[in-house]
Amino acid sequence: MLEEYEVEPVTDHHVCVVDMLGRSGRLHEAFDFIKQMQSLPEPGVWGALLSACSYHGEIELGREVAELLFAVDSQNSGYYISLSNMYSAAGVWKEAVELRNIVEDKQLKKPAAYSLIDVGS
């Protein structure tokens, strides 16, 4: 990308590529893309693949991706919940409950959402 377009690829570019591959069902291609990145992938890149695994019901790859995410960002409850939801959708209840228990034991909380509006400017 740098040589051809004179653009240094950043995390947003990587997330977009993984997201596009994931949405089209090319999950293993997305995984290989991440593994071949020259820089250490940010959690958002792996998160895009985890989301695609969830959408396509790819539990085995989703589990592998989630384990990588837990290693680099163990305080993000969203990764645990995504994998738990994947397990629930597949009827793998024992693992789903175990992940929910981990979230409770670690006292992980989802940050509250908020919106901002600009009045009068």
From TrEMBL:
GO terms for biological process: RNA modification. This is Pentatricopeptide repeat-containing protein. PANTHER family: PENTATRICOPEPTIDE REPEAT-CONTAINING PROTEIN, TETRATRICOPEPTIDE-LIKE HELICAL DOMAIN SUPERFAMILY. Keywords: Repeat. It comes from Rhizophora mucronata (Asiatic mangrove). The keyword Repeat applies. Pfam families: E_motif, PPR. GO terms for molecular function: RNA binding. The keyword Repeat applies.
